[in-house]
Amino acid sequence: MAKVNVCGIKFDNLNMDEAIRRVLRDDCEAQIVVTPNALIAEACASNPEYRRLVNSASLVLPDGAGILSAAKRQGTPLRERVAGIDFGERLLAEAARRGDRVFLLGGRDGVAPAAAENLKAKYRGLCICGCFWGYFDRYGEENRRLLGIINACKPSILLVCFGFPIQEQWIRENIGFLPSVRIAAGLGGSLDVWAGRVKRAPAAVRAVRMEWAWRMMKDPRRVRQLPALFRFRAISKKAAETDGKSHMESPVS
């Protein structure tokens, strides 16, 4: 399947079903999943280290209307938005069906356990084998202790919710010390939604690709993100005007 290059990020052009099948393949090494939106793409456009971090992932999925619009403008449309939280829920549903063990990492004190209880009530048979909050020393003794806790729990799926780029950096730096983990996904604020601390936009709003506007209306602090969104649109528009067809990469294995 070809990849689609949007502002230097090489997205896998998959729908949700294909993304889930890809990440659950038994013949793969540990999979790292990232789900960049327009804000992340804008940050990556000016930061080569961020681009390398994102593009080194096993699966790069488009989260957000801005990414889909940019890909369409350059003549290389992506098939479907695969939002991180939706991907996470589908993965959890499959984990419940298959009997996979899941570890939740991130959020403030009490958020991950609350999310775990809600998710276990929603997905019958789901095994969430451990939780840990997101405000710990990621480079010291507390991180080493966390790695020991995760290894003792033996999860095959690890959902990391620190926000970009911290979650992607942590996964890349620590995945080699977690031999049981087959899938590690960075899912931003998903734990807050699953814990009931943050309400997600209604389905009708998501269907018309206006979730970003709904979030700003509910949390005016997000207005600070508008300049970055405008920059992303300008960058992607310029790229499309230059040569949209050059953004289609050759098929990869």
The strand line-up of the biggest sheet is 4-3-8-7-5-6
Residue-averaged pLDDT:
90
Q: Please report which band the strand proportion falls in: under 5%, 5-15%, 15-25%, 25-35%, 35-45% or over 45%.
A: 5-15%
Q: In the CATH scheme, what's the topology name?
A: Rossmann fold
User: What's the overall geometry?
Assistant: globular
- Shape-level CATH architecture: 3-Layer(aba) Sandwich
Q: Could you tell me the number of beta strands?
A: 8
Helix content, binned percent: 40-55%
Number of structural domains? 1
Largest sheet: 6 strands, parallel
* Name of the CATH class: Alpha Beta
What's the number of helices? Answer: 12
The end-to-end distance, rounded to whole angstroms, is 8 Å
**Oligomer category:** single chain
Uncertain runs are: none
**Any idea what the radius of gyration is?**
18 Å
* H/E element sequence: EEHEHHEHHEHEHEHEHHHH
**Global structural class:** alpha/beta
